[in-house]
Amino acid sequence: xxxxxxxxxxxxxxxxxxLRAAPAKPAIEVVVLGSGGPRAFGRAGSSxxxxxxxxxxxxxxxxPGAFLRIGELNLDLGAVDTVLLTHLHIDHxxxxxxxxxxxxxxxxxSITYRIFGPDGxxxxxxxxxxxxxxxxxxxxxxxxxxxxxxxxxxxxxxxxNLESPRTNILDDDGLxxxxxxxxxxxxxxxxxxxxxRGVTVVFSGDMDAxxxxxxxxxxxxxDLLIFNCAVxxxxxSPSQLYDLHTxxxxxxxxxxxxGVKSLLLSHLAPDVEGRQDAVRKSIRVxxxxxxxxxxxxxxxxxxx
Length: 304
Ligand SMILES: [Zn+2]
Description:
The chain is of the alpha/beta class and 304 residues long. It has helices at residues 3-14, 66-72, 90-93, 96-104, 127-135, 212-218, 248-258, 270-273, 276-284; strands spanning 28-34, 47-52, 55-62, 82-84, 111-118, 151-158, 167-172, 175-181, 190-196, 199-203, 224-228, 262-266, 291-293, 299-302. The strands form two sheets. It has a seven-stranded mixed beta sheet with strand order 6-5-4-3-2-1-14. A seven-stranded mixed beta sheet has the order 7-8-9-10-11-12-13. The radius of gyration is 21 Å and the shape is globular. The structure holds zinc ion. Residues 37-38, 46, 89, 91-92, 206, 267 line the site of zinc ion. Zinc ion binds next to helix 3.
């Protein structure tokens, strides 16, 4: 080893830790666990983890495959206690018990979850009943509450009428979460706006175009809008899907009208995946900001 190398090593060893350049952690980093929908074609169902100042804290939806991606990314679930469910279709909630399982097995002590999701209607239970059916006293996985760690669940059911007011559901040490009702065919659904240390990300969830006025209000001036893009512009996808999902042309208009800085398209369907150029072109008609397509395990720092 020559003298130059020795001196350099000595300098590093003697340098106080506060002088060593540590990479700045973004206030919010979004990790895409699942960028797909209900079809099995290689993408996990819809799911995201939000890392706040370097620590995973919030799970947004829990589609099938989220559990596997958490392990592949070696994510530390030790501080994840907030779960935001956009709606209760299987491709957004099927891995919820597996998440509880994984989280409990990495815990040092008891866990209190705060879970938010839509009220019930028709074939869909309200979120509190859904959680009860999974891990309540008579639930299918009643054992989970004491498996690995003692767990308790605080569940809030959110209004699903499009006329119901936008609501602030969490205000906690600089973290704020707001929600608004959306519309997804016959399935009760909501969208979320999450702000932390000056940056904001909005999740549309699955929604048809009838809910765009609510979404545009919720997403006002957000730094990142994650919009679920499951159909092509009409008539490119089966007509009944337009009662469930918003086409790219209207996603672009919503991004423009809300003044968001950037757009991430997720919940991709096989036909959307195969026509990314057409989708991007359609969005470009209205929205000039950055547009990206999600993929499983993508990490997106939310920046101003
Ligand atoms: Zn879906």
